Amino acid sequence: MTRERTPRSPGRRAHATAAAGAHPRASTSPAVVRTGLASVLLGVPLAVLDSPMGPYDDPKAWALSILVALTGLAWIAGARWRSVAGSSAPDVGDRVVCGIVLVCTAWSLVATLASVAPAQSVFGIFGRGAGLLTIALSASSFFLIRTECRTPRAIRWVIDIALLGSVPVCLLALGQAVGWDPLPKAWDPAVRTLTIRSTFGTHVFLGSYLVVLVPLTIARLEWAFRERSDSGRWAPATAAQWRRVLTAMVWILGAVALIALGSRWPTVWWALVPWGVLGALAFRLRADDVQAPTDTAMTASLLVSLLAGQVLVVLVSQGRGAFIGILVGVGVTGFALLARYRAWKTLMAAGLGAVALVAFLVLLNVPGSPIARFGKVRLLSRLGDITNVKQGSPGWVRLQLWNGISDGWRRQLHGASVIPGVAPGWRSLIGYGPETQLVVLEPLTAPFAGKLSASGEGWYARYVFDRSHNVLLDRLVTEGIVGVALWTLLFGAIVIVGALRLRSSSGPGEKAIRVGALGAILGHVAEGQVGMETPVPLLLFWVATALLTSPPWTPAVVPGRASREAKSRTRWWSAALVAAVLVTLLIGWATTRWLFASMAYANGVRRGIAGQLSEAYEEFRRSTALAPWLPMPAESAAYTALRLATAESLPSRRVAFLQEADALLRQARNHAVGGPGSWALRAQIAFAEARTGQPSQLATSRDAFAVALQLRPDDPRLLAQSAWVWLESGDPLRARRTAEQALAREPREWVAWAVLARALKAQGDAHGTEQATSRARSFAPPEARPLLESLLR
User: How far is Cα 605 from Cα 598, in angstroms, rounded to an integer?
Assistant: First the structure.
């Protein structure tokens, strides 16, 4: 079996001779671009802030957008000076994959332009940040990797950087496993008990990150083992290699220390992304220390330790989707490597072990089986709960969401409008736009998922789904049937072209990395069928795609002189560079405002939960001023203004707050088609205006409540409020029927009891009026007593 070797000195002399005639910027450009890629791979996984609405996702989306944009700018700046000598022309497979990637990205742009909330589709909602910017800039890393990392040395370096970025993530997760958690706390009861989250916020997102990296770690370890000499001995580690390991250790410990300090001084959180950039600069400067990089026993031992840590983190985090993804990714990688090297006995043993593992999981979920009792062990508790679809369980919620989307899409294809005023046939094809699940999923799934709520000390929340927990269904909702077809075509092209690249791989390093990339992609896709797409795993998916489908590796990339034709196009490159600078500045400015708007919005939510309505209103207004194109902060400010108007005793101040609420809601609706919450808020504001002396607003309120109930038919609070509007409109019979519908869904809904009492009184039912009044007073919270008494009069 042949072993990959680094070119000898004649090749290096040829490189130096050719480079001597090249423009100086031609040789520095790849170094700058690779530094940018390293900044992304090191800085983005670490990005955490304690103050945004999404402490983990929002800073990652912000850092990814800026760092990838700057890296792309560096690539454009160097491309005008660079021509590559000896590089092979793109083949058919290369053109196919690159073309489909461009078409898929272009379709995301089309879906964004046609979105029901265009600006939200560009930047993403607070707490997720997976809008068009994240989609497009993550995809651009595919092109950056495949153009700048074509030699074994460059590919080894970029993979090592990606794996290094996971080390502090795993260390922090293991720290959480033993009770040390310096990271921001989760308030959502659904994830509060799952404490192994590291810098990703939830066990789901942490697992989806490691699903991509574990197969690459295995492939990198295989490459290291192929570096041994023919005698089976490792080469001794050089002083330069020891310096690089020491630099890596300092960077890892520094990252963990910064996070520990951030728990005491929140300002330190802002240093995490710059720390990643600083690490990228340090590793790029040290990249040329080793003239002929060769893996050693130290390399192999570090990779084995990292692999063990990654797998352990996935296990203790109890992410079931990640566990499935790991099984697929590791299974594909291991099978392909063992089959490639004809290790049939080992392959058979591994196959038997895989069968035994699957059998264990099946029996673990079968009640009464001999090993079912192990499902009560904490480490195996969630794996033993995979088949649990009882009402309220995670499995049940997923099934209801999937059934709701399937049924809603079927109704939509038959002409039923899911969102009022939106053409159903057209939306079936193009979708509703990226990051619009908050608007669409509830009307689609309400008949199935129903009402799910959570509460805490002094607060109550209704769960509104912003993801379907299935990447393919999310794509159907956001980009329609065309988007799903394009994604399926892309996935097929990646697998087919990747298999062809694997067959033609020449060296053991190239074979191993392509196999690991294939396992990473398949594991990521498998995990996505029960998970969600977030910025960092999406970025790593494109990195793995580039590693799998890129043209054959070359021993060295030799920069040559720019041709006359290239020089004649200098002005076009200059124009492209100017445009890229402007776009990068725009991305940095807009995403930074988006991040600060998220921070203000989160502060408003916290103030609102604490009952500090005036302070919450000011924070929501500040968020609206920072991101006026987003509907979420404007709607929240409008809702808070309505609450302030309700609590205000001065009529003039009450009217002023209602006018502000109406203006803010109109601003939000100018940027997005209203969802259930928006229509309900419109109805409540109109009703409040009617009660302040504008009776004409009663009709507006009734119509808005009708639309809100069409989108959210089983909400008892909306039904009770709608009944109140019918009562004030002079229709006690309709008010009674609506109140009874509310009470059938929630017997403790005090507004419905109060409306029923009034309606029965109007109909002359004294006994029923007394009973309903008693129920209303027993269920109403203390702060609602004045409003209740005014309603009962």
Answer: 10
